[in-house]
Structures are given as structure tokens and as C-alpha cells.
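Hey, can you fold this one?
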Amino acid sequence: IEKFSLSSFAYASHSDSLKLVSYLEIPYSLLQFIKIGNKYVSYYQASISAMGENGNQLEQFVIRDSIVAYDYIETKSWILNRKHFSTFKVSKRQEIIIIGELQDLDTRKKGLKKKTILHDFADQNLGLLDPTFLLDLDGDWGYKRGKIPTHGQIVEEFGRGVDLNVSGFVNSSPFTLKVILSNSEVSDSVIINNKYQNDYGFFNEYLLITSNNLNSLKNDFSVILEQEDKIVKKNISFSKFKSGISSYVKNIDLAIKQMKYFMNIDEKYKQSSKYKGDIEKYFYDIWKDMDPTPDTEYNELMDEYYKRVSYANENFDGWKEGWETDRGMIYILFGPPDQV
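Sure. Predicted structure:
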């Protein structure tokens, strides 16, 4: 039950403070469902709280709720989930501990997660918060209505593009926001270069990253804030779902390392002059050659392999990633046991 996710994002809301938005996401499979008539019901209690560095609780959000499913398969889903969030107003120079807690009210099992977040923006100094990608989702999720933050990992649908929330602290002189893109198609390309000025001491802008700038599996962005003779930079990545590549693959470089149990792909890549640095295409072509159904876009072998990698990371992690452990290696190569 402790495998729910706890995420926090922040944006400037005043010259001396910011809003911290924390999300708790509960996959259905973590909870115990009880069959009642023709439906399945689970009951749970969730909370999100914030504590200062001195241990004082600043605020707490508690909810008791239930989930109703009409198909048994849904009760075992890692994809279907329930989301809750809470916002906290904090100083721009403060360490905060965010605590998420989940309890199944039927089994009484509890899970607890903590995140320590430190912001230390000095007065009168230029400051840039971590940028945040936002996807469309009906409702209020702590940002502008109908928008919810995403970590930008293997996003399937985003229409004409995604919003990038860029926020920070400035003085009253003009300042510039630049967004620079690097992916398999372009390198260090300036896609946004906007000028602003205000007397508020902070800014909070939503910049549209159009879909034509998200063509690669992995797209790396640099956000640069310039004012007077000072520059601050933050980096962020956005991974797009690509047909023919497993949804379990979030990072091509890491996925290549995870192939070591059956292929030394680094050596093969170095010996190939065909791709000229396009590692993404090379990765795709290698798996396409092994695809049991090459006439379709779905590669069953790739999906099964990285599904096993994901399972190993979830269940066999310790002092190193689960896929690198002995148990992980055996599971990846041989799959789940025939008998338990």
C-alpha cells in the first residue's frame, strides 16, 4: 500500500512566498475491493500534510472516500487511479516536509511517504523555480482550471501542445524568458524568447510548447531567465509516447543499458556509422528486427522485456536498481515462475 505516489510542484504567488501544490495518486491495485452486488467497492482514508523544519505542522488535508468499480480487472489496475491534492503557502526561504499517508479502511493497512523540499531564494535576487509541464484534465488541480502537472514521462495525448509553467522572482526592470529545445531532430534551438516587466517582484507565466516541438521520444528543454546582467537556468525533459516503442521505456539511454542481459548494444552502436548519433532510431531498429509481428506497430517482445524490467524495479530494489540485482536479472530473462 505504500506504493502510492506523492509529488510536489511549486510556483511563485507573491514577492516573498510561493504556493506548493502536492498530489497523492492512488492506483486501484493498492486497495482491497469488496464485492457488493454487481460492483466492487474500496474504502480508504488519505492525507497530505506540511511540516516546517522545526517539526511544527503547518496544515493538513484529510479525506475519507470510496472507489466503485464494475469490472474485477479494474480493481487490479495500476493505470486507473484516484488523485487528491492540497496547496500550501510557504516562504520562499523555507524547508518543508510534505507527508502523504494512505490507509485502507478494510484491511487497516497503512502507507506513509515523506518528501523534503527546500527553497532558498534570497531577497532582491533573481530566482527561477523548477518549470512544470501541464496537461488537460477537467477540474481544479491547483493551477489554472483544467490543467494538472505532469512529470512528462511517456505522455500519449496532448493535442496541439502542452503548457509549460515558468515562475520565479525578479525586480522591476525588464526580464526575458527563453526556452531552448534539444532532441533527435534539433540541437539548442530557441523556440520561445519573450520579454516581460512588472512591479510585483515575481512572475508566473504559462508558455505553450506546440506539438511540433515534441516529435522525439525524449525532448530536453532549457528554461533561461535573464534580467540585467544575471542569468538563471533550469532544465526539464518531456517524453512522448511513440508508436512501436514500449510505454515502459521512459529513457532511451537507460533502456539501452537494460539490454545488457542479451546484447552488448554499446559496441554494436559504436561499430555502426549508419545512424550518425541518432541513438533513438538505432534502438527502434534493433527491436524492430526482433519484433515477432513486424507488420504491426506493437512490439510484443519489447513490451514484455521492459514490463519485466519495471516489475524488477518495483519488487527487487535495494542498494541498487531492481533490474541490476541477481533476482532482477533472473526475472527479466525467465519471467514469472510457473508455480508459486
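The longest strand covers residues 39-52. Let me know if you want another pass with a different chain boundary.
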